[in-house]
Amino acid sequence: MTSDTARRFAEKTILTIDVYGTLIDWESGIFNALDPILRSHGHVLTSDALLEKHAWHESALEAGPYLTYREILEEALRRIARDLEFTPTEQELESFSHSVGDWPAFSDSTDALLALQQRFQLAVITNGDDEFFALSNKHIGVEFDYVVTAEQTRSYKPSLNNFHVALGRMRKPRSEVLHVAQSLFHDHVPAQAVGLQTVWINRRQGRPGYGAVPRAVAVPDAEFADLRSFADAILDE
């Protein structure tokens, strides 16, 4: 018997997928890279407090003139340090901005993507740059049909430009495209604004706060706790 999810999205032929927060555990990655730096300067923040502070500065920087993601991370650290009244060393700035390649994939990401790939084309729309995505994809190990990075679009989600560029490359009717992502702010709001249905991979399910993303309001078309659950549901025929 076909599941409700499989029926609801039966016409979809391509999944556009976010990377950081959806496939890559960027909250652990960010915290593990930043926490030792802050501690070395006498500051101890909870995981949620640190992530929320980073989210505030990162999103503000991404909304401004284009910077590489490495520059975004370095400046975010400078601003966090300014808030806490210390000055990071050049080594600390470099360490944090080069940490992306060490951020781990969620344990279900690879198997779920390989299963989904049997039925759908897979497209990445990521706020990372080309180099960082290549490093992260070593943890994921999947060959995607399309890869659209912030470096290529010269903009960061939630800019609609990232979605327009992706849709232009894929040349698929919006009715055939389903966007799959964790961040309501970066992904669901703009994806729905360009006419896409969305699936929320709510990796923070049951936890308070918004973690590494700013607060946003959106109503996804479906919600799952992880990518494996989504794959099982949409492939259930």
Automatic annotation (TrEMBL):
Domain of life from the UniProt record: Bacteria
Keyword hit for Hydrolase: yes
Coiled-coil region: none
Keywords: Hydrolase
UniProt keyword annotation of Hydrolase present: yes
GO molecular function: (S)-2-haloacid dehalogenase activity
Protein name in the entry: (S)-2-haloacid dehalogenase
InterPro entries: 2-HAD, HAD-like_sf, HAD-SF_hydro_IA, HAD_sf, S-2-haloacid_dehalogenase
Pfam families: Hydrolase (PF00702)
